[in-house]
Amino acid sequence: MYRIRLRGFVFQTSFYNGGYSCTPKTQPFSIVKRLAKICKNHTYMKKQFLIYLLISYCLNLSSQVDTIRFNSEWIVDKNDCDYYMVLNRKSEDSTYDFWDYHISNELYGFGKAMGQNIQERTGNFIYYYKNGNIKEQGKFESGAKVGCWKGFYENGEIWYIENYINGKRDGEWIRYHLDGSVHIRLSYKNEELISKFFFNKQGDSIDNPECDDHIPYFKDNRIEPNEFRNFISQNLIYPKSASKKRIDGTVILQFKVDEFGNIVGIKVTNNPPEILRNAAIETKKLCPKWIPGRQFCKYVKVTFNFPINYGLK
Predict the structure, then answer these.
(1) Are residues 82 and 99 in contact, defined by beta-carbon separation less than 8 angstroms?
(2) 143 alpha carbon, distance to own chain's centre
(3) How many CB atoms are closer than 10 A to CB 189?
(4) Model confidence at 151, in pLDDT bands (50, 70, 90)?
(5) Which long-range contacts (CB under 8 A, 24 or more apart) does 57-62 make?
(6) Of the given ranges (9-23, 59-73, 231-245), which has the lowest mean pLDDT?
(7) Could you say which of 61, 175, 246, 256 has the lowest number of CB atoms within 10 Å?
């Protein structure tokens, strides 16, 4: 994949299934002159390909380009932003081209959506890690996963293969060890698990797999459930102004532990005093990474609800 940054616009290009994407950020100036300069300075890129990009960009000049900001849960949020989307509303049909970015500007993924609903994704999609390697790729139809989806470890090695029909698990699912050997084979029929086989790195079938299903756990301790509560107690932020005014209460925090053990999507689900709400969120942000949850040898995102009590002594 090539990523060409010019002042005023960005081109994202990919050879996935012979496709490409072209992302205008704003109206550029002297585009022909700049592309010619790239062509001169980058001998590894063919002139024909740059001309192809130029034509594609010009065809998109009549489109409306919007930017939408999202939080870690992909909910529109202008203030607490973890991702942003560049949305290209095409005038000639009902499709929308869009490109998702981390807030630090690394490409997260790109594809198409139908109609006014950007969640109704359609066509081939690719998602990326921050290092530029592909994280996941596959196809959507009317917002549902279809066909074969492939996932990759951050180093680029194959991680899993999944098959879907209309968004439902159907067919063979395979998980791989980091060395590329098969770790688990699953067979589904319309979401029903038909069979499950585990293998060690030598290819031998095993009854007790190294990769067991488990919920996320704090630090390296699955046995002591109070370790996270002890951490919160030892690091609790109790504002002096709240203590002086004798403000107390309980803050119920909801958060998710993502596939990498990061704490994301922190929000308050009850209605405590604002000063305690903010203090609880700041306390939670001090938490180190967790061990992520795993299901069928695939790390998954899990939601937790956790009460934090502010009591006056």
Answers:
(1) no
(2) 16
(3) 13
(4) very high
(5) 57/9, 57/11, 57/22, 57/24, 57/31, 60/22, 60/24, 60/88, 60/90, 60/97, 61/24, 62/91, 62/92
(6) 9-23
(7) 246
Q: How far apart (Å, rounded) are the C-alpha atoms in residues 68 and 87? A: 8
Kindly list the distances between the CA atom of residue 114 and the CA atoms of 14, 20, 64, 165, in Å, as whole numbers in the listed order: 21, 18, 15, 19
Q: Quick one: tokens of 293?
A: 């949850």
**Separation between Cα atoms, residue 105 and residue 293, nearest integer Å:** 28
In contact, 207 and 198? CB cutoff 8 Å: yes
Give the whole-angstrom CA distance, residue 303 versus residue 306: 10
Where in 7-94 does DSSP place strands (E)?
Answer: 9-13, 64-70, 83-89
Query: CA geometry: angle at 293 spanning 289 and 294, to 5°?
Result: 140
User: Tokens 């994704």 identify what position?
Assistant: 121
Contact at 8 Å (CB) between 169 and 188? yes
Distance CA 219, CA 307 (A): 19
99 contacts 12 by C-beta, under 8 angstroms: yes
Which pTM was predicted? 0.56
Summarised one tens digit per residue, pLDDT across range 39-85 is 555 554 455 555 555 555 555 545 566 788 887 667 777 777 778 88
